[in-house]
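Instructor's aside before we start: the two examples that follow are unrelated to each other. I chose them only because their records fit on one page, so don't look for a connection. First example below.
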Amino acid sequence: MKHFVDTLHISGIREFSEMYINKEDCIFLTIGEPDFNTPTEIKDALKLALDENHTHYPPICGNHELRQRIAKLESMSFFESYTENNVIITNGATEALILAMGVLLGHGDNVMIPTPCFPLYQTQALLTGAEVSNYDTSTHGFQLRYHEFSKHIKENTKVIVLASPNNPTGIVYDEESMITLHRLMEEHPDLYVIIDEVYRSMIYEGEYPSIRDYESTIDRVILVQSFSKTFAMTGWRVGYAVAQESLIKQMNAFHQNLVTGVATFIQEAAITALDVDTQFMLDEYDHRRKYLLKRLALMDVDYIRPEGAFYIFIDIRKYGMDSYTFCKQLADELGVVIIPGIFFGTEGFARISYGANMDSLENGLDRLDQFIREFCL
C-alpha cells in the first residue's frame, strides 16, 4: 500500500480554499457543507446517550436498532426488502466508499468513473491497486448514453462509481442513464455499481431514477449514504453502506481492521436523526438555488441547471481562461473563492456551493458580476 500512499495528496478542493484562508474580506462558496447547525433534537440525543454511559465499544457492524431503521428506510422506496444484515455503519460516506472499493477491486481490475465527480473516488480506487478510467459526461449533457459509454467499458472493468445527485453539477442521472447502467451490468455479469446517494434528500425538481429499480442486478449494487448533508452532521462522521449480505460481511471485516467501529453515542443520536424533519433546510437550499439561477441568467453566465445537491457548475469556456486561472484570478482580485472544474476532472467549468448563507451568495454574485465585466469581457 505504501507505493500508493506515497502518491496521495490533499484534495485540490481543500488546498485551493486554504490558499485564501488568511486573505481579508474573502467569500467562500467552496466546501460542500451545510451552513445549518445540527438540529437540537439530535444534539440532545447525543447528550442523553453520554449521560446514560453509551460510551463502550459498539457492535462492529453498527448499532442493531440503527441498522434496522436504515434497512426499513432504504426498503421503502425500492422493491428490495433489506434487513440489518444488509447494512454497515461507517465513519461517514468516505469510509463506506473505501470499504466498497476495497472488497470489490484489486490489482488488474479497472474502475470506471464518470466525470465530473468527487475527486476522492479516483484516489480511493487507486489505493486498491486498480486502474482508473474516467468518462467525460460533459459532451452528453452530463448523462450516460449507452452508445458512447459502453465503448469505454473494458474486459477488466469491475466497478462503476457515480453519485446522483452529482457533485459538482447537481444533476440527477436520468432514466436513460439508469437503463444504460443496467444494460451494461446485464452484459457484464461481474460488473458492480457503487452509487453515492449522499445528496438524495436534496432534489428540487424532476424524478429520481435509480439503479436499484432493477431486480435482476440489485445484488451487484452498493449504496453509499451519509447523515452529513441531510441532517447537517458533517462533523459527526457517520454514514452507511447497503449491499448484499455477503459483501457486508466482507466490508465489516475490512471496517474492523480500519476503525473498529463508529462511536456508540453518535450512533444513538443518528437513530433520533432519522425522525427529524429537515424540510426547512431543503426549502432554504431551493430558495438559494433559484436566486443563483436568476442572477447567473441576468449576468449571462452559462451553467448546468442543478436538480439536486447544493452546487451550480458554471460554464466559463467563453471567457478564454482555464478553470484554475479563472478561479484564482477571481479570488485574487475580488476575494470570491469557488472551485476550479479541473479538480473534478472536467475543464472549462467552476463549482459554486450554495451551502453558504444568502448574504454570502448575494455579495459573492455581485463580485462575480464585477469580475466578469472587468476581466472577462
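Example two begins here.
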Amino acid sequence: MGMGDYSPGSIWYYAPNKVAPIIFIVLFFISGAIHAWQTIKHKSWRTTILLPWAAALMIAGFAMRELGAYHTDNLTYLIVSTVLVMSGPPVYALINYFILSRILYYIPYLAPMHPGRVATTFVGLDAVCEILIGQGAWRMANSSMTEKQRQLGANLVTASLSLQVALFGSFGLMAAQFHRRASKSKVLSRDLRIVLYVLYVSATIVTIRCIYRLVEYIQGWDSTIYKNEIFFWIFEAVIMCLNTTLLNLFHPGKRLPRSNSVFLDRDGITERRGPGWADDRPWIFTVFDPFDVWGLIKGRDKKTQFWEMSDEELVRLRAENKANKRNVFAGAMDPFHLWGSRGYIGKHLTKKSNEAGTTTPAPAVKAETGGSTKSAKTAMETV
C-alpha cells in the first residue's frame, strides 16, 4: 500500500508508515543529545538551551505517530501527534531569534534595533503562533467534530502560519540589514559570517516548512497534500531534521560570546566588556514599541551608547549596575519592574517626591559674618 492510498477505518485516511517514525525518533534523539552536550560545553544557555527542547517535541510527536500507525482508529494519537510535531518548528524559529539577538549584543553600534527588543518582540509574537497552533491543530485533526468546528481549527492554524511567514520575512530583512552594515564596517569575523549564513539557511528551512503547512491547511483535509503522507515526511520531518543537524554541525554557542556584556570594539578585533545593553521599559512596551520610537524622539538611546565610553567609565558603570541589580525576590514580586526608585512607575514618583522636597522654603539662619538673617540658600552660597 502506498503512502497516499486510502486505508479503510483509518482516521489518518492512509495507513501511516510504521518505520519512518522510528528512524526520525532516533535521528532527533541523537541530535537533541548533541545539542545538550554542546550547550553545556560552550555554556551557551541563553542562546541554545531550547535546542534540546525542540528536538524533544519532535521526538514526542513522532512517537505518537508511531503509536497511531498501529492504532489507526485512535483519534487521540492523531491529535497529540499533530500538535506536538507542529509545535517543534516554531521553537527552532525562536532559537534563531535568540541567536540574532546575541549577535546584535556583540556588535551593538550596528544593531538595527535593541537586541533585547528582538527577543521580546519576536518571542512574544511567536508565543501567539504557538497558542493559535495549539488551539487550531487539535480541532482540525479531530474528525469527530463538525465541519464548522474543524474549519475553525484550520483557520486558526492558517492565521498562525501566516503570522509565522511574516515574522520570518521581517527577521530575514533585519538580519540582512545588520549583515550589510557589518560588512561595510569590516567587523565581521569568519565565525560571525558562519553564524549568519547558518541563520539564513535555518530560517529558510523553517519558512519552507511553514509554507507547506499553510498550503495544506488552505486546501483543506480533502486535498492531495493532506491525503498523501509523503509530503509530511519530506516537508516536515526531513527538512526539520536537516535544520537540527545544521545547528549541530555549526553550533552557534561555539562561535558567539557567552555573555551579552561582551562586545566588539569598532576596530573589529578588540573585545571589551560593557554593562550589557539594558532596556528599563516594561516588557509590554518593548513588544508594542520594539524600536522605542519615543525613546528616539527624546534621545534616550543616546544615553545608553556604552560602546563610546572609555574602559574606566565602563568599569564604573558595571559596578553601578551591579549595585542596583535586583535580587530574585524583588524580581518575583515585581516582574515588570514597575516600582522602586528605578522602576518604570516608581522612578517618576521618587522624582516628584524629591522635587516637592526641594521646593520647601528653607528656615532662616544667621550669617556667620554679620548676624543678619539670611536664607539657607544664601548661607550656602557664601560657604
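The first strand starts at residue 262 and ends at 264.
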